[in-house]
């Protein structure tokens, strides 16, 4: 048998190993961002779970949010490893896509849960924090994670386009039908969350009006402090809503409008803010809570900060 000059026999017996592609700026950003997201959210989750006093409903929701964002960071790291360190395969694509879908779904639903918690803590302040409220929060989180896991299992259960490229969406290997359902659900959650924050604004305005009617009974400095605190609270609310809408709305709309023929740059431009939400959530939600900050400061400087069991409920969050 003569040797084919294009396919030497020695290469058939000893196939060449997989060549790892060169590291790019996108790969470095993927690895660094995934590591930062996983690290800061691991700190938040560990802090909440290791502190017995942090068991109010809001802390359960923040722990769920931190766990979801932690999984998003792990998914980004795995995606980097499969791209630049080991040979990619179908199962690696299904694993990373399923993990990202699970984490982003749980993160968005946990954000809705935080908004619901804020609304209930203002409108039902007398009963907030009871054992019944904690049980309801636990049931809500159980439903959130069950739904997120069901959605995340979709690619592995056959909702992928690895064998049918024409059915791919803007986010391979997800099919367009699957991504449309996912993004439609994202938009519903975003709208419900915005409605909850609108309700929070209405309740806060009623409280501000009640304070204003009693202003002549308050000292001048106390009245100024009340107005200053209210204005600062609305500024924080606007910041939180701006980041929330800016992170989640672009990808939710693009997933519905785009298809496999759309430029990949648009997909990255809309997916990066959604993943970036996992980087900003600990700063905007968990680390703004006085009790979580106090526990972290006690862990860093135990000789300076003494234990205080007073809990600040979610108007601080």
Automatic annotation (TrEMBL):
What residue ranges are annotated as transmembrane? 25-51, 58-82, 94-116, 137-158, 178-198, 237-256, 268-287
User: Does this entry carry the keyword Phosphoprotein?
Assistant: yes
Q: Which GO terms describe its cellular component?
A: plasma membrane
- Superkingdom of the organism of origin: Eukaryota
Which UniProt keywords are listed? Cell membrane, G-protein coupled receptor, Glycoprotein, Lipoprotein, Membrane, Palmitate, Phosphoprotein, Receptor, Transducer, Transmembrane, Transmembrane helix
Q: What is its main location?
A: membrane
* Topology relative to the membrane: Multi-pass membrane protein
One GO molecular function term of this record is: G protein-coupled receptor activity
Give the subcellular location. Cell membrane
PROSITE patterns attached to this UniProt entry: G_PROTEIN_RECEP_F1_1 (PS00237), G_PROTEIN_RECEP_F1_2 (PS50262)
- Please state every residue range assigned to the domain named G-protein coupled receptors family 1 profile: 40-285
Pfam families xrefs: 7tm_1 (PF00001)
Q: Which Gene3D superfamilies match?
A: Rhodopsin 7-helix transmembrane proteins (1.20.1070.10)
Family affiliation = Belongs to the G-protein coupled receptor 1 family.
UniProt-recorded name of the protein? G protein-coupled receptor 3
Lineage of the species this protein comes from:
Eukaryota, Metazoa, Chordata, Craniata, Vertebrata
């Amino acid at each position: 048998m003569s040797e084919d000059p294009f396919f030497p026999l020695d290469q058939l017996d000893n196939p060449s190993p997989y060549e790892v592609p060169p590291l790019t700026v996108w790969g470095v950003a993927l690895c660094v961002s995934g590591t930062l997201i996983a690290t800061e959210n691991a700190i938040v989750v560990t802090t909440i779970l290791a502190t017995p006093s942090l068991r109010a409903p809001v802390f359960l929701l923040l722990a769920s949010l931190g766990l979801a964002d932690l999984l998003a960071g792990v998914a980004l790291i795995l995606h980097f490893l499969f791209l630049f360190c080991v040979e990619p395969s179908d199962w690696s694509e299904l694993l990373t896509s399923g993990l990202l879908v699970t984490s982003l779904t749980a993160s968005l639903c946990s954000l809705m849960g935080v908004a619901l918690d804020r609304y209930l803590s203002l409108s039902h302040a007398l009963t907030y924090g009871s054992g019944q409220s904690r049980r309801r929060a636990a049931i809500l989180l159980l439903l959130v994670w069950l739904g997120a896991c069901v959605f995340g299992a979709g690619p592995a259960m056959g909702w992928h386009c690895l064998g049918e490229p024409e059915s791919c969406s803007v986010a391979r290997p997800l099919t367009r039908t699957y991504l449309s359902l996912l993004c439609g659900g994202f938009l519903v959650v975003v709208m419900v969350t915005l409605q909850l924050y609108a309700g929070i604004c209405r309740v806060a305005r009623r409280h501000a009006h009640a304070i204003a009617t009693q202003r002549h009974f308050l000292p001048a400095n106390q009245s100024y402090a009340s107005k200053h605190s209210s204005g600062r609270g609305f500024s924080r609310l606007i910041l939180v809503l701006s980041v929330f809408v800016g992170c989640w709305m672009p990808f939710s709309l693009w997933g519905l409008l785009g298809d496999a023929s759309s430029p990949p740059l648009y997909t990255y431009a809309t997916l990066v803010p959604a993943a970036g939400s996992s980087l900003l959530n600990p700063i905007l939600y968990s680390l703004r809570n006085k009790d979580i900050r106090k526990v972290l400061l006690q862990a860093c400087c135990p000789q300076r900060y003494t234990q205080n069991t007073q809990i600040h409920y979610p108007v601080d969050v």
